Amino acid sequence: MKKTGAQILWESLVREGVTCVFGYPGGAILPAYDAMLDYPIRHILVRHEQGATHMADGFARATGSVGVAVATSGPGATNMVTGIATAMMDSSPIVCITGQVGSKLIGSDAFQETDITGITLPITKHNYLVSRPDEVARMVREAFYVARSGRPGPVLLDITKDAQQSSCEFEWPPEPKLTGYRPNHWPSTSDLERAAELVRAAKRPVILAGHGILLSGAMDVVHRFAEHAHIPVAMTLLGLGGFPASHPLNLGMMGMHGEAWVNTAIQEADLLLAFGMRFDDRVTGNLKTYAPHARKVHIEIDPAEINKNVKVDVGLVGDLRDVLEELLPYIDACDRTEWTEHISHLKGDSAVRDIQNLPDNGHLYAAHVIHDIWKTTNGEAIVVTDVGQHQMWEAQYYHHERPRTLITSGGLGTMGFALPAAIGAKVGRPDAEVWVVVGDGGFQMTMAELATIAQENIDINVAIINNGYLGMVRQWQEFFYERRYAATPLVNPDFAKLAEAFGLKGARVRSRAEVVPAVQAARESEGTSVIDFQVEQEDSVFPMVPAGADLDAMIRRPSAIVETGADV
Amino acid sequence: MNTFVVLVENVPGVLTRVASLFRRRGFNIESLTVGHTAVPGVSRMTIVVDTDELGARRVEANLYKLINVLRVDNVTSTPTVLRDLALIKVSATPETRAHLMQLVEVYRARVVDVSPSSLVVESTGTEEKIDSFVEVLRPYGVLEMARTGTIAMVRGGATSTEGVSVSNGASHTEHPTDDVSVSYSV
Ligand SMILES: Cc1ncc(C[n+]2csc(CCOP(=O)(O)OP(=O)(O)O)c2C)c(N)n1
Fold first, then answer.
1. What is the mean pLDDT of residues A259-275?
2. Does B184 contact A177 at a Cβ distance shorter than 8 Å?
3. Chain B CA closest to residue A127
4. Is A426 a known active-site residue?
5. Distance (Å) from CA A285 to ligand 1 centroid
6. B69 touches chain A (CB under 8 A)
7. What is the DSSP letter of B143?
8. Chain B residue with Cα closest to A184
9. Are residues B10 and B76 in the same domain?
10. Which of these three, B20, B51, B80, is where a domain ends?
11. In total, how many domains does chain B have?
12. Does B112 map to a domain?
């Protein structure tokens, strides 16, 4: 039967298992929007196309399936750029569909024409300009296949208006076969043996667990591997949740704001086992002095990551879960108590420095807010963070037991990510309790999506960590620019009233005693609550490895027990 | 210097994808040539990049990430025929013309255009040979030069395009490295 390109688009999306898309209409995508009404698709009307892409991303990260965002040509498409780049950096599988002017008009600077495939070329895994209806089904199939396979990533389909309007026979194409695309690699037996040999010989090994654990669903085998070989596990920011926080072998987060003993353990290690991570500069600090005594084994799906930043002894290219299953039988059971006890010693005076041991001094600290949200939600919420100090405090004080419960922009560090990504997460996981942890700065970048929340009856809760500053930048100014606070103080609206203006609930918290009741109240009430936590203004995130410094050259947390005032 | 022979699908934008990859990853392209192969729908690029061995491996791995790239061969240390084509317009007076003709002879170049005041000479060969030819012509007055950049072909019977084909937009080939063990160890 003949169908229009627009019908074929939805027909194909439905066949790919899509039930929900995030989007914003416009002239060049109007035929697709019109056809959408005849298909079983939930459409979430966003307030800005950036929001649509972050929602698709949040949906993908919470569920593990591909998220879909839709926009019109020109300004609609360019508004997606930040969200696409965010998904690219964090290997998040999304498909973005944009309308394009009629194929005959392309190149004429027609109304709302932009070369979006050109613009997004370096920030998509692949993209397509679709100018005929008979290409739509095949390209949708390819887009989903490319987005979700291998190292996942964003794919953009730019569909001309005439391709949406004109008709052709619909035929669902077979499984795509792309010659130039090689998602499945496999390490050689000899490399597996060499890796096993390095594990056998290691006295002070550390597993570095990255986002790849979640993406390949390798939690279980990493667990078995770590226990079997008795190897402590340090996590990247995006790896959090990939190994249970409460597990005795879990070290916690590494890198710039990782705990001091974790980074010291990495610097002292004689073997690093990098599982689905990419040695980002936030993780390694100064590359010249990074883990100087360690041999390195890198298991990674993307061959281009091997030896990119850190030269490794063995690179095993392939899907992390498959490679670990293959490698595990080569690994001997082992006891490395000496090493794990040594790491426990490295913790040293950390209890003294733990802000949880700070008696209530009348000030509200962000760390306490996060801690109390963690306690109150039994550690089971999906927490979506924005970017800044609160993001790091979340990573330090919300202890994630399960995968896909921390959603955050790690690679690009995109402010404005949290609120829309949380909407996507909730749409994908309606049964989950979803919390947004966001700074007063980043919240204001995409707060218009509160209207989306109200219109679509989304039930999440928002914790604004309001310190009156672009906190993380202020911290850098404090440490490295002699406290010259150029353009970081914020004059904010009344966030509680703002929430109410959107028809949501608003609350304000100024003391530690109020935190738990406010969090409880938000959980118990239906719909979305926005809580404005007015926290200590000039608090800083510790420990901190200054950018470019040696990984163990950390600015430590000041001692909490003796601390009295607000000043750090 | 590293020389790559890259087979790509002949689809719109593929040159941009390849060129943009080099820029984005911070590699400098010395020369890049594109043209048809004997296989319909498949184009061949010869790309010369100024980088070390580790960089060359990164280039190769990143090229393979592009979906329209069918095959990448780093031919730097393989016996290879390397050729550059140059058209050189040189000023020629009745006095210098004979000398110039002799030089053209010595360099096995060809005169392809003659005017009262100039000659256009065509020369193919390695980059070095053409560079040296240009140097000897320079005293006579080189007015204009156009060069293609290097193209490369591995010596012997093996071909880069073996098994590579493209049909209705979708290509089919057995990759030399498909599903066999790839070693990334050092
Ligand atoms: C879109 C964008 N612009 C700028 C930055 C740089 N930046 C990183 S953290 C930060 C401050 C964030 O402030 P806020 O949202 O209030 O969170 P806080 O650090 O106070 O928790 C800024 C401006 C960024 N990451 N993203």
1. 97
2. no
3. B67
4. no
5. 21
6. yes
7. E
8. B179
9. yes
10. B80
11. 2
12. yes
> Nearest-CA neighbor of B74 among B1, B5, B159?
B5
CA–CA gap between residue B128 and residue B107 (Å, rounded)? 12
From first to last of the 186 residues of chain B, give the pLDDT tens digit. 999 999 999 999 999 999 999 999 999 999 999 999 999 999 999 999 999 999 999 999 999 999 999 999 999 999 999 999 999 999 999 999 999 999 999 999 999 999 999 999 999 999 999 999 999 999 999 999 999 999 999 999 888 888 787 754 444 444 434 434 455 654
- List A209's β-bridge partners, or say none: A235, A275
Chain B nearest-CA distance from A146, in A, is 9
Inter-chain touch B170–A178, beta carbons under 8 Å = yes
Rounded Cα gap, residues B112 and B164, in angstroms = 37
Mean pLDDT of all residues in chain A? 96
In this prediction, residue A356 carries a pLDDT of 87
Distance from CA of A408 to the nearest CA of B (A): 25
Give the predicted TM-score (pTM) of the model: 0.95
Active-site residue (options: A161, A296, A426, A505): A161
Give the three-state DSSP class for A368. Answer: helix
Q: Is the CB of A410 under 6 A from ligand 1?
A: no
Chain B closest CA to A121's CA: distance in Å? 7
CA distance A564 to B181: 60
Among the listed residues A546, A537, A530, the one whose alpha carbon sits nearest the alpha carbon of residue A565: A537
Query: What is the distance between the alpha carbons of residues A327 and A350, in angstroms, rounded to a whole number?
Result: 36
Give a yes or no: residue B72 inside a domain.
yes
Q: Is the peptide bond before B139 cis (omega within 30 degrees of 0)?
A: no
Residue A541 and residue A311: Cα distance in Å, rounded? 31
Residue A463 CB less than 6 A away from ligand 1: no
**Domain span holding position B21:** 2-80
